C-alpha cells in the first residue's frame, strides 16, 4: 500500500469521525462516505450507484413475482381442496383450514420479521395467509350449514385481516382490506336494496382503511375540510 493508505490508529479514528460528521451535515452521501473510508481500509468498497439501482429494480421484481406466486398458489390450493371437499371428514376439514391459515401466517412472520432470511417470500406468505383466512371463513360456514348472507361472511373476512395490514406494514394486505370492504358494501347494498348512502359503521371502516393513504389523510385531517363540514 502506498503512503495514501498508511494512517495510524489515531488518524483512523479521527477520519471516521470526520467522515461521519460530513455525512450528517449533508456534505457527502452514504456512498461517498463508504468510498472514502474504503480507501483507507476502514470499510468495504461500496457498489457503484448504478449497480444499487439495478439491485432495487431486481428487488421490486422479486416482490411482484412473490406476490403473484402467492396468489396463484392460494388459488391452486383452494381449487385442489374444493375438488376433494366432500371426501374429507368435517373435523379434518376444520383442522386443514385453520392449520393452513395460521401456519402460513407463522411462516411469513418467521421469514420476514424473525429470522429475516427471506423477507420477500415472508411478505408474500403473509398476503397468502390473508387470502386463506377468507377461504377458511366461507368453507367453515359451508361445513356447519350456517345460514348467513355472503356479505356477512365477507365482512367477517375484512374484520379478521384488517389489523394485519398495519401490524405487518403490508400495502398488499391493506389492498386486500380495501377489496373486501368494497365487496362487502356492494353485496350489502344489493341484498338490502337500499340507496348508495353510507351508514356510520361503513364510514368508520372507510376511515380506518383510507386514513393511512396520504391523499385521504390530507382530506380527513384538513382543518378547512372540517370547517366546511
Order of helices and strands: HHHHHHHHHH
Average pLDDT works out at: 75
Low-confidence stretches: 212-229
Distance between the termini: 72 Å
* Count of strand segments: 0
Q: What count of structural domains?
A: 3
Sheet/helix structural class: mainly alpha
What does the largest sheet look like?
none
Helix content: over 70%
Instruction: Tell me the overall shape.
Output: elongated
Strand content: under 5%
Cα gyration radius (Å): 26 Å
What is the overall number of helices? Answer: 10
Keywords summarizing the entry:
229 residues; mainly alpha; 3 domains; 10 helices; disordered C terminus
What does this structure look like?
The chain is mostly helical and 229 residues long. The protein folds into three domains: 9-39, no CATH class; 62-147; 148-229, no CATH class. It contains ten helices and no strands. The longest helix is centred in the N-terminal third of the chain and has 35 residues, at 49-83. It starts with 8 loop residues before the first helix and ends with a helix. Mean pLDDT is 75; it is low at 212-229.
Amino acid at each position: 500500500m502506498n503512503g495514501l493508505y498508511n494512517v495510524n490508529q489515531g488518524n483512523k479514528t479521527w477520519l471516521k469521525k470526520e467522515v461521519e460528521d460530513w455525512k450528517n451535515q449533508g456534505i457527502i452521501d452514504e456512498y461517498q462516505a463508504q468510498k472514502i473510508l474504503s480507501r483507507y481500509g476502514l470499510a468495504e468498497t461500496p457498489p457503484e450507484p448504478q449497480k444499487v439501482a439495478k439491485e432495487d429494480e431486481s428487488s421490486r421484481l422479486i416482490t411482484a413475482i412473490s406476490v403473484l406466486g402467492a396468489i396463484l398458489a392460494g388459488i391452486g390450493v383452494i381449487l385442489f381442496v374444493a375438488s376433494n371437499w366432500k371426501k374429507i371428514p368435517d373435523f379434518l376439514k376444520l383442522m386443514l383450514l385453520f392449520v393452513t391459515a395460521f401456519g402460513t401466517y407463522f411462516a411469513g412472520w418467521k421469514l420476514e420479521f424473525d429470522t429475516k432470511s427471506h423477507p420477500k417470500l415472508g411478505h408474500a406468505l403473509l398476503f397468502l395467509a390473508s387470502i386463506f383466512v377468507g377461504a377458511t371463513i366461507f368453507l367453515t360456514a359451508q361445513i356447519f350449514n350456517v345460514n348467513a348472507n355472503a356479505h356477512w361472511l365477507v365482512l367477517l373476512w375484512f374484520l379478521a385481516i384488517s389489523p394485519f395490514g398495519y401490524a405487518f406494514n403490508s400495502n398488499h394486505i391493506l389492498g386486500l382490506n380495501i377489496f373486501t370492504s368494497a365487496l362487502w358494501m356492494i353485496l350489502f347494498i344489493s341484498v338490502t336494496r337500499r340507496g348508495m348512502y353510507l351508514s356510520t359503521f361503513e364510514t368508520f371502516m372507510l376511515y380506518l382503511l383510507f386514513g393511512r393513504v396520504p391523499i385521504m389523510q390530507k382530506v380527513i385531517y384538513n382543518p378547512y375540510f372540517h370547517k366546511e363540514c
